[in-house]
Amino acid sequence: MNSKDIINELSFKAIRSSGAGGQHVNKTSSKIELTFDLENSNALSKKEKERLKEKLSSKLTNENILILFCEETRSQHRNKEIAIKRFLETIKKGLTKPKIRKETKPSKASIQKRLEKKQNNSIKKALRKKPNLD
């Protein structure tokens, strides 16, 4: 994955932002909408695309387009930087391969310890019962 190639494939759109800013917010478009077309990307291999479709399925549209919004600051440029950073983190997280779990069996000492604990618990509860006076 080459992040420079991926960033070149991104498209940005500036939208009017809600929130703080007073009268100025009504005039400027500081909110950024970042879109990335996963299906038509040349920077990703087929395997990477498949993995991203699988992992990011809840964030993708029906046309396999990833859309991110950023309206944290009043600056359009700063929002664009934040959106790109978030996008790259999302892609890297989506491309990470999970570690393969190696099954292990418990040690003899841990098995013995567990059995002794169960036995002690059983004795403790047996002592709570009323004595049998026959």
TrEMBL record:
Gene Ontology molecular function terms on file: peptidyl-tRNA hydrolase activity
Q: Where are the compositionally biased (Basic residues) regions?
A: 125-134
Q: Which InterPro entries match?
A: Pep_chain_release_fac_I, Pep_chain_release_fac_I_sf
Q: Which residues form the Prokaryotic-type class I peptide chain release factors domain?
A: 16-32
Kindly list any coiled-coil regions of this protein. none
Give one Pfam hit by family name.
Answer: RF-1
Q: Keywords in UniProt for this one?
A: Hydrolase
Annotated stretches, region: Disordered = 98-134
The EC code for this enzyme is 3.1.1.29
> What family does this belong to?
Belongs to the prokaryotic/mitochondrial release factor family.
Q: What name goes with this protein?
A: Alternative ribosome rescue aminoacyl-tRNA hydrolase ArfB
- Species source reads Polaribacter marinivivus
Top-level taxonomy: Bacteria, Pseudomonadati, Bacteroidota, Flavobacteriia, Flavobacteriales
